[in-house]
């Protein structure tokens, strides 16, 4: 009995191997099964006739209109100043058609998408400060201004590393000059590094040339010591005037402030910061903090709150970009 069963199993395996060999390599078969294309792997897939192909293509073209999401232009808001745009979404007809032809006849159309950039981008708005990202983009950023507080940087970096979160660190130039190795550690962790002036001055109280010196000096350090190609300037204490924004723009930088201020420098308890963030956190928010004990103790909680609200956490560049968030792209089968 056992010999008969063994012979049957062996014969079945031999037939399967021959069958798979006739229809392509074993690797191709396994790959096809993984992608739900077993019928194609076994050679039972019936190709489309020319008439069916045309009908399929016409259906995709027609349905593409219902799947279209228009892009949103960058704009200037009376309260929030410069607001970034947000890419639209459109069916990639050719890729969708190619993918559909690989599916068995009668299968649901596997739509593929492409992003459509807005006609007006953030860079076209002129010398205008930015306080938040586009509310349609479900992403936020942590802005960490560094001019002091080295003793808290490592635990903050540890939390960010542990949670897989990237932040934007705005570095005071005088701090950077004296802490290049620590700045390199921040950079090596994959965080974004940007300009926070040189000596933490009240920019609004300075003349144009003094303001220029503060920005240029730190920008030079970022480039020469760290190789940073920077985009952003965060004025110390949020103090600026029109000249500040214009001078930063002349250096290729856009001026960034914040949506939510943790006011961690006042040493509030972590619970108070978390209550504030929970009540105010919305898509596009930029959360300001510093390397303090309060931020050390509340950072993991802020990350949890963002995730509970379905918000991705990215750098300032990522949040202020018009690109759609990756989770949204994946959800809509964009390739």
Textual characterization of the structure:
By secondary structure, the protein is α/β, with parallel strands linked by helices. The chain folds into three domains: 45 residues, no CATH class; 78 residues, no CATH class; 198 residues, Alpha-Beta Barrel (TIM Barrel), CATH 3.20.20.370. The chain contains 14 helices and twelve strands. The strands form four sheets. Strands 5, 6, 7, 10, 11 and 12 form a six-stranded parallel sheet that branches. Strands 1-2 form a two-stranded antiparallel ribbon. Strands 3-4 form a two-stranded antiparallel ribbon. Strand 1 and strand 2 form a beta hairpin. The longest helix is centred in the first third of the chain and has 21 residues. The chain starts with a helix and ends with a helix. About 14% of the residues have low confidence.
Spell out the blueprint of helices and strands.
Layout: H1 2-22, H2 26-34, H3 38-41, H4 50-67, E1 75-77, E2 81-83, E3 88-91, H5 93-101, E4 113-116, E5 139-146, H6 150-163, E6 168-171, H7 173-178, H8 180-188, E7 192-195, H9 208-226, E8 232-233, H10 242-250, E9 254-255, E10 260-261, H11 270-280, E11 286-289, H12 293-308, E12 312-313, H13 316-320, H14 326-331
Parallel strand pairs: 5-6, 5-11, 5-12, 6-7, 8-9, 10-11
Antiparallel strand pairs: 1-2, 3-4
Descriptive terms for the model:
335 residues, 3 domains, 47% helix, TIM Barrel, six-stranded parallel β-sheet
């Amino acid at each position: 009995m056992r010999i008969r069963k063994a012979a049957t199993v062996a014969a079945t395996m031999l037939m399967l191997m021959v069958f798979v060999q006739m229809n392509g390599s074993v690797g191709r078969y396994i790959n096809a099964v993984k992608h739900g294309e077993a019928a194609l792997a076994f050679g039972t897939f019936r190709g489309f006739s020319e008439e069916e192909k045309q009908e399929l293509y016409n259906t995709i073209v027609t349905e593409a209109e219902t799947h279209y999401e228009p892009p949103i232009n960058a704009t200037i808001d009376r309260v929030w100043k410069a607001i970034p745009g947000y890419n639209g979404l459109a069916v990639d007809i050719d890729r969708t058609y190619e993918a559909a032809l690989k599916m068995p006849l009668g299968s649901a159309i596997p739509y593929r998408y492409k992003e459509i950039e807005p006609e007006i981008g953030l860079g076209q708005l002129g010398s205008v400060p930015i306080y938040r990202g586009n509310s349609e983009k479900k992403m936020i950023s942590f802005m960490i201004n560094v001019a002091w507080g080295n003793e808290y940087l490592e635990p903050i970096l540890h939390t960010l590393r542990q949670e897989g979160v990237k932040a934007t660190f705005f570095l005071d130039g005088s701090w950077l000059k004296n802490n290049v190795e620590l700045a390199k550690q921040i950079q090596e962790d994959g965080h974004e590094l940007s300009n926070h002036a040189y000596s933490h001055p009240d920019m609004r109280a300075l003349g144009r040339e003094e303001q220029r010196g503060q920005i240029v000096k730190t920008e030079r350090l970022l480039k020469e010591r760290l190789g940073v190609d920077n985009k952003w300037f965060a004025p110390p204490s949020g103090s600026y005037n029109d000249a500040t924004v214009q001078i930063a723009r002349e250096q290729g930088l856009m001026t960034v402030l914040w949506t939510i201020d943790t006011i961690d420098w006042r040493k509030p308890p972590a619970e108070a910061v978390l209550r504030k963030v929970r009540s105010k956190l919305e898509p596009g928010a930029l959360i300001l903090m510093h390397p303090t004990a309060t931020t050390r103790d509340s950072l993991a909680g802020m990350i949890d709150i963002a995730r509970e609200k379905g918000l991705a956490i990215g750098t300032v560049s990522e949040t202020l970009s018009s690109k759609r968030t990756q989770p949204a792209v994946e959800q809509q089968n964009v390739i």
